[in-house]
Amino acid sequence: MRPRPSPRRLRQPRRRPSSTGSDVTSFRTPRARTSRGAFSIAPRRSRMGDVTDAGTRCPCGSGLSYGECCGPIHVGARRAATAEQLMRSRYCAFALGDTAYVLSSWHPSTRPTSLDTEPDVVWRRLDVLRSAGGGPFDTTGTVEFRARWRQGDDRGVLHERSRFERAAGAWLYVDGELLPD
Ligand SMILES: [Zn+2]
Fold first, then answer.
1. Which CATH number does the domain 21-178 belong to among 1.10.10.10, 3.30.450.20, 3.40.50.1240, 3.10.450.50?
2. Which residues have CB atoms below 5 A from the ion given as ligand 1?
3. Which in 122, 164, 169, 174 has the greatest CB count within 10 A?
4. From the CA of 60, how far away is ligand 1's center (Å)?
5. Segment Disordered: which positions (predicted)?
6. pLDDT of the residue at 26
């Protein structure tokens, strides 16, 4: 149920993403989401510096500053209270290049050992469409979102329904399902 891509396919640059054959997801970059979906690939690192200011608008699009929103979650000062907060913090980590946080917020049962780098992908915008469960008193939850990316002249949208579980009080990303753009 979770086909893995052939290495050759993963190496093909600028391939138009396709939802077929994809199931385990979460913020994979366009090239890699042909297989396991989104947020599975390492974020770019180059723009880390310009968004780590606590007073900057948070990249997750919440309307809050980074210091009020995903910043404290990234450094471990606060836990994501809901699955949606965790999902936002993971998108934000991808946008900022915080690979360590992406891995640490992944459920051990599905967490990859490492993340491929995809330095030229820019995550431009996140829209959370709907959530189910994932609240402070839930143990599971799903969050559906659309995340816009750019890679060189290519642009696209990642549409995914991610699945989360709460273990020992901490929300973790389990996997996700790619949906049509
Ligand atoms: Zn945020």
1. 3.10.450.50
2. 58, 60, 62, 69-70, 88, 92
3. 164
4. 4
5. 1-38
6. 54
